[in-house]
Amino acid sequence: MTEKTAHEERRTADEGAVADARNEHAGYVFEQFRVPRGCLGYLVADPETGLAALVDPEIEMVEPMLDAVFRHGMKPAYVIDTHTHADHLSGAAELKKRTVAKVVMHEKAPAGGVDVRLEDGDRLHLGGLPIKFLHTPGHAKDLVSVLLPGRILTADGLLIGSCGRTDLPNGNSTRQYHTLYHTYRSLPDGLEVWPGHDYEGRAHSTLGEEKKGNPKMNFATEEEFVRFMDLENPGKLEPVHQLADALKANMK
């Protein structure tokens, strides 16, 4: 399939388990999936047209996600990988093979097999449901957050009580600071935060909670944040044992 930009696309219109299926934001279907190691993925769909997007499918989520799609009677239009994952295998390629969905990633993603490449501020639509993409680099240079009505899917850009590490390939602590302190802080406090990993035993948070209580969003200066992320934080984290294999597989 020929790779297209989001601008062109707009013109052409069982360890995984469902952890939460909240629908307080009327007008669209929303489900969260997780695997035991804490990876989180999402199903977003427009009930009127049946068009769906699958976001950050870890390989073990493929079957549960497909089951959910069929249960809701939906048609996958997009598989969105928010970035090139370094710590687990993406299920995007497998979902692409088994559906008619197009793989969506940021324009800087080094991954192959991408059908739609996005820039900051681009939008796609599932029927009448708009999906806006914000470039939120730091954990990875190609990371995008997915903005929905009432919610933002932040992947590793913002975690509950923390943020993604910046010591992996394509990570950058200065960019991470600007993502946290400028991009996310500019958004409304009431916006729900649904991250890509769960280390706190919580399905979601709000931006207001994170602005007030997240230590990574409350450094006094950029210099202090960068110094912590570059020098102190790596020593507090476990090594990523599948790093080379995951990157090799996810960049095909």
UniProtKB/TrEMBL annotation:
<dbReference type="GO" id="GO:0016787">
    <property type="term" value="F:hydrolase activity"/>
</dbReference>
<dbReference type="GO" id="GO:0006749">
    <property type="term" value="P:glutathione metabolic process"/>
</dbReference>
<keyword id="KW-0614">Plasmid</keyword>
<dbReference type="InterPro" id="IPR051682">
    <property type="entry name" value="Mito_Persulfide_Diox"/>
</dbReference>
<dbReference type="InterPro" id="IPR044528">
    <property type="entry name" value="POD-like_MBL-fold"/>
</dbReference>
<dbReference type="GO" id="GO:0070813">
    <property type="term" value="P:hydrogen sulfide metabolic process"/>
</dbReference>
<dbReference type="Pfam" id="PF00753">
    <property type="entry name" value="Lactamase_B"/>
</dbReference>
<keyword id="KW-0479">Metal-binding</keyword>
<dbReference type="InterPro" id="IPR036866">
    <property type="entry name" value="RibonucZ/Hydroxyglut_hydro"/>
</dbReference>
<protein>
    <submittedName>
        <fullName>MBL fold metallo-hydrolase</fullName>
    </submittedName>
</protein>
<dbReference type="GO" id="GO:0046872">
    <property type="term" value="F:metal ion binding"/>
</dbReference>
<feature type="domain" description="Metallo-beta-lactamase">
    <location>
        <begin position="38"/>
        <end position="197"/>
    </location>
</feature>
<keyword id="KW-0378">Hydrolase</keyword>
<dbReference type="InterPro" id="IPR001279">
    <property type="entry name" value="Metallo-B-lactamas"/>
</dbReference>
<dbReference type="GO" id="GO:0050313">
    <property type="term" value="F:sulfur dioxygenase activity"/>
</dbReference>
